[in-house]
Design a protein that fits this description.
- It is a single chain.
- About 40% of the residues lie in helices and about 20% in strands.
- By secondary structure, it is an alpha+beta fold.
- It has two domains: about 25-355, no CATH class; about 360-460, Immunoglobulin-like (Sandwich).
- Strands 8, 9, 10, 12 and 14 form a five-stranded antiparallel beta sheet that branches. Strands 13-11-15-16 form a four-stranded antiparallel beta sheet, with no helix packed on it. The chain has a three-stranded antiparallel beta sheet with strand order 3-4-5.
- It binds iron/sulfur cluster (SF4) (2 copies).
- One iron/sulfur cluster binds near residues 276, 283 and 291.
């Protein structure tokens, strides 16, 4: 088949935003208007409040959300995860992945259009600012043509100034999600020389966000986002997507006065749905990787249908099977399988979270050190201690031997551990040789806070091989 020959599926061979020579085709979408766009505008303040406000919120003394990668501390909705809880994070990540697969199989890319920070910032924050400075899509196209007047340049400078200021705010917020709001305040109130790495991170984040929202835009969804690229395997014919009703719409034909449309479809080929699309696609071609389910084409088409005196919802939330008139099975065996796995994972995660300890102590013999024989028949071992305090309160940890005669001394720093942090120290344990039953006896050490038992830790105690009597 000649490479230039067009087929109904030809549009899938190339990206709508890249021309034949591989150059970017800039998208100038028209401003959306309609019920769904209004609903998204109403939702936006809540999403932005969460993104910007979450680092300020504490739950029982814990940050609501914190992804402290450097110190390996994570707080998700106030629940803390430390390095010891790595297995919980793994289970949580698997549960999230199964949830995403299940959710997408049923509801398609609902997340992309309504909640994803990329879409929310680009379409509900940056794009309206662009409309404000440069006008609607068709005006922007002209605005970007020469000649470059002083007025045009001033508008461009102001727009990009606002873009960068907002990107800087977003960059700071992202850092607050990683290092916490208190640490961020320290960084922004002190000289950059005091915290050069954090300052560099703020600058880097700000520049990346500016680049994404000012230039890269929809390419982030089509070329970079792994979720977007997985759509072809996650979506099925029963998934709810933003779909064009080709049965009702075709054959399409422009609206003409006095025209008999008896044998024509409802699509009047006005291309309003294409003009509003921020990813530059024609949804009438079918579900496409580039579609972020922003709903702009639904609003645009509903408005056209109203003016043409035709029923609305020619483009709507629906599944391919529903539109094609085939059996629309919302619940498939695949979905049932995912649901069972997800329920099992959530149950396991909940049980592990409820039953985990608030304090976790590790006591290990110092590596490379053998036991030491003292003069009076006493054996001494050296240990490294690490206590993870997952509570918000300060702990004054004492250690004591259980069920054995001997002496335990803290020879490293005292174990006074601030809330949500880790304390480390070194201890020695001395036990008379006649108390030991083997060259590697198990001993129990009690971990106490202000005299109250927190937990008991078992560890090995090395000594000389007992003599056979
Ligand atoms: S096809 Fe419609 S829903 Fe999809 S990105 Fe374009 S305008 Fe948004
Ligand atoms: S807006 Fe509606 S009528 Fe106009 S081209 Fe798109 S689908 Fe057809």
């Amino acid at each position: 088949m000649p490479s230039e020959q067009k087929t109904p599926e030809s549009f899938r061979d190339s990206l709508s935003t890249v021309d034949k020579r591989g150059r970017r085709i800039w998208v100038y979408p028209q401003k959306p208007q309609g019920k769904l766009y209004t609903a998204r505008k109403l939702l936006t303040p809540f999403l932005l409040a969460f993104m910007f406000g979450a680092p300020f919120i504490k739950v029982g003394g814990n940050p609501l959300m914190l992804f402290d990668i450097l110190n390996r501390r994570f707080f998700i909705f106030g629940i803390g995860f430390w390095p010891h809880d790595f297995y919980l994070l793994v289970i949580a990540a698997i549960s999230l992945a199964v949830f995403i697969i299940l959710f997408t199989a049923v509801y398609g890319r609902l997340f992309c259009g309504w909640i994803c920070p990329q879409t929310v910032f680009l379409e509900m924050v940056f794009r309206p600012i662009e409309f404000f400075f440069e006008g609607n899509g068709h005006r922007q196209r002209k605005f970007n043509q020469p000649p470059w007047t002083a007025g045009k340049i001033a508008r461009k400078v102001m727009k990009h100034g606002v873009f960068f200021a907002l990107s800087f705010l977003v960059g700071n917020t992202l850092l607050a999600w990683i290092i916490g709001i208190d640490r961020l305040f320290e960084v922004v109130t002190l000289s950059p020389a005091v915290n050069p790495s954090e300052f560099a991170a703020v600058l880097a984040f700000s520049l990346v966000f500016y680049g994404v929202f000012a230039r890269f835009r929809e390419q982030a969804c089509t070329l970079v986002c792994p979720y977007g690229r997985l759509q072809s395997v996650l979506l099925g014919d029963n998934s709810i997507v933003i779909a064009y009703d080709f049965k009702r719409g075709e054959p399409r034909a422009k609206l003409k006065a006095g025209q008999d449309r008896k044998n024509l479809g409802d699509c009047i080929d006005c291309r309003a749905c294409v003009r509003v699309c921020p990813t530059g696609i024609d949804i009438r071609d079918g579900t496409q990787l580039e579609c972020v389910n922003c709903t702009a084409c639904i609003d645009a088409c509903n408005s056209v249908m109203k003016k043409a005196g035709l029923p609305p919802k020619l483009i709507r939330y629906s599944s391919y099977n529903a539109i094609a008139g085939k059996q629309d099975r919302r619940i498939t065996p695949r979905m049932i399988g995912y649901t069972v796995i997800l329920a099992a994972l959530i149950t396991l995660l909940s049980v592990l979270l409820i039953t985990r300890d608030n304090v976790e102590t590790t006591i290990l013999r110092t590596s490379g050190r053998l036991h030491e024989m003292l003069d009076n028949g006493i054996v001494r071992n050296l240990y490294n201690v690490q206590v993870v305090n997952k509570t918000g309160a300060v702990l004054n940890v004492d250690l004591a031997l259980k069920n054995i005669t001997g002496e335990l001394r803290v020879v490293g720093p005292p174990l006074k551990i601030a809330g949500r942090s880790t304390g480390e120290s070194v201890i020695t344990v001395e036990i008379p040789q006649d108390q030991l039953y083997s060259a590697s006896s198990m001993i129990t050490i009690q971990v106490l806070n202000e005299g109250k038992l927190l937990e008991e830790v078992r560890t090995t105690f090395s000594g000389p091989k007992p003599q056979r009597k």
